[in-house]
Known about the structure:
The chain has helices at residues 2-25, 52-71. The protein has 73 residues and is an all-alpha fold. InterPro entries: NqrM. Keywords: Membrane, Transmembrane, Transmembrane helix. The chain crosses the membrane at residues 6-24. This is Na(+)-translocating NADH-quinone reductase subunit E.
Amino acid sequence: MTVYLTTFAVFLLVIIAMAVGYIFQRKTVSGSCGGLDGIGIAKECNCPEPCDARKKREARAAKQAEWKKNQIV
């Protein structure tokens, strides 16, 4: 039981340290390798054209961005 409590305490301290770091530096937690771009992959899939669902999501996001842009006036 002591091992579990000690492990929980260590994880809790790490999470608190990350939260404090974010609050003071306003930086997000990020990886050190640069993600897929670090190994030369521009996108997650190798398909030449996005699927219909992704096209709809992108169109919806563009529409919302345009609406927000017009509301800021």
